[in-house]
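To close the chapter, one final illustration. This time we ask the reader to focus less on the individual chains and more on the assembly as a whole: which components sit near each other, and how the overall shape emerges from the parts.
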Amino acid sequence: EVQLVESGGGLVQPGASLRLSCAASGFTFDTYWMAWVRQAPGQGLEWVASIKEDGSEKYYLDSVKGRFTISRDNAKNSVYLQMDSLRAEDTAVYFCARDSGWHKLDYWGQGTLVTVSS
Amino acid sequence: QSALTQPPSASGSPGQSVAISCTGTSSDVGGNNHVSWYQQHPGKAPKLIIYEVSERPSGVPDRFSGSKSGNTASLTVSGLQADDEADYYCSAHGGSGVFGGGTKLTVL
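The assembled structure is written out below.
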């Protein structure tokens, strides 16, 4: 059974940093792209970042470029999202998802809430 | 990375059919067949229900169908059931990922 479990969310002040983790199981992790998608309270889904199977290609939402970094550790079956210089508008539930190709997100985690507030 | 355009709401009575549109550009929806649809119930993670415009993952009822014409994709839910009441999002591949704004489907 495919499982994705996010962790690392919490309440932080503007300008702070946070690192999200997503532990994957139930599939051959290093053969899939992975993605992070967020959802602000009461709002729609927003793709944030994607990373290739071997980590050699990464893509980001324009508004997070230079502040967020996606990475993965295939030995640990995990993908990460390092979030720096956080802003109030980054407040959202962050979902980790498996990308089966061309942004077909076929499995999702339960999400982790990030709140940026003073 | 402009969001795809969906109607904010749609509704139908049990047993009826309802269609939800998703309009993009020739760079995303119209540029390839990599259009997906997701269903999200309140407080839950999204669930993939359609991919590659009209393909259904295993376990998704055939009451859910997808199509595309030009820069507009559509999701049709037939034989509406109470559990179909949820938010629906389209997604397309256009270099990077992009979602529609979401449509709240109400079963009357």
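The mean pLDDT of chain A is 96. Chain A touches chain B at residues 35, 37, 44-47, 50, 59-62, 95, 100, 102-106, 108-111 (CB under 8 Å). With these observations in hand, you are ready for the problems at the end of the chapter.
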